[in-house]
Design a protein that fits this description.
mainly beta; Immunoglobulin-like; four-stranded antiparallel β-sheet; four-stranded mixed β-sheet; 3 helices; 20 strands; 10% helix
Length: 262
């Protein structure tokens, strides 16, 4: 830690302290809304790097521990992206931030702010009024004792709609499906939006028959593994679960039967 003489400290506070904004503080330090006489500051007080902030001055005057400086580390979701109106934004620091204020750059009634926030350890969590962020461009400025950070998002209407099957090689309840065509070309199921998840080809007992299942983009596919061909006159189930980007889930259960071999 650096040691500053009392004279050097007076010079520093003259540059960064309250004298420039409050004439009553010419012979005093204004720290966190309170006035302390310069004579209260011990000459052997230790400080961190300049400029000295309120927390460091108050710690020196009162002898209380000095809170460490908090530096911005990251934010989730990342700034510049699109988020749901129901999203919560988490801002992470290397130490607990002090004196946090979040503003949006717009004037709002005090009882209807567009965003609320809470400091939780080394993080600040931000969410919308009544849990809903205002739709459109959201510009946030988060300030704390020793810094500030601007964040930008495009807020969209929450998506509560489950992914829907839009078509495919077979449909639920199909009969007289030719197994030779299925073995040769495989099975494809289309969805109305991009999804992720799992898909299997099963028998009616729920056993996986061993085909390769993939889910990517807006479709799911099932591909034959040699030696695992489906047969004639048999009922099969396409089973699985897919989820869209908003977390909406759809359970897949498509039953079809193959033709009887003549």
């Amino acid at each position: 830690m650096k040691r500053l003489s009392l004279l050097s400290l007076f010079f520093v506070v003259g540059l960064y302290g309250c004298e420039t904004i409050n004439p009553l503080c010419t012979e005093n330090y204004c720290v966190e809304g309170k006035i302390y006489g310069k004579s209260l500051l011990p000459e052997d007080a230790e400080y961190g790097e300049l400029p000295i902030n309120d927390s460091q001055l108050l710690g020196a005057i009162t002898g209380s521990p000095v809170a460490p400086i908090a530096n911005f580390v990251s934010v989730y979701p990342a700034s510049g992206g699109t988020i749901s109106a129901l999203a919560k934004i988490q801002v992470f620091f290397d130490n607990p931030p002090i004196g946090v204020i979040v503003t949006t750059g717009e004037v709002h009634a005090a009882d209807h702010p567009p965003a609320h926030w809470e400091v939780r350890g080394n993080a600040v969590e931000i969410w919308g009024n009544h849990g809903v962020l205002p739709e459109g461009l959201l510009e946030l400025t988060i300030t704390w004792a020793n810094g500030s950070q601007e964040l930008y998002y495009v807020v969209i209407t929450p998506d509560f709609n489950q992914p829907k099957v839009g078509g495919g090689t077979v449909a639920d309840g199909d009969t007289n499906v030719d197994p030779e065509i299925i073995n040769r070309n495989g099975i494809e199921i289309q969805f109305n939006e991009e999804v992720s998840g799992i898909i299997e080809l099963q028998n009616t007992n729920g056993d996986n028959v061993g085909w390769i299942g993939r889910v990517a983009g807006n479709k799911a596919t099932l591909e034959l593994v040699k030696g695992k061909e489906i047969g004639y006159g048999t009922t099969y189930v396409i089973a699985g679960e897919v989820t869209d980007a908003a977390g909406n889930r759809t359970v897949i259960h498509i039953t079809f039967a193959t033709i009887i071999d003549e």
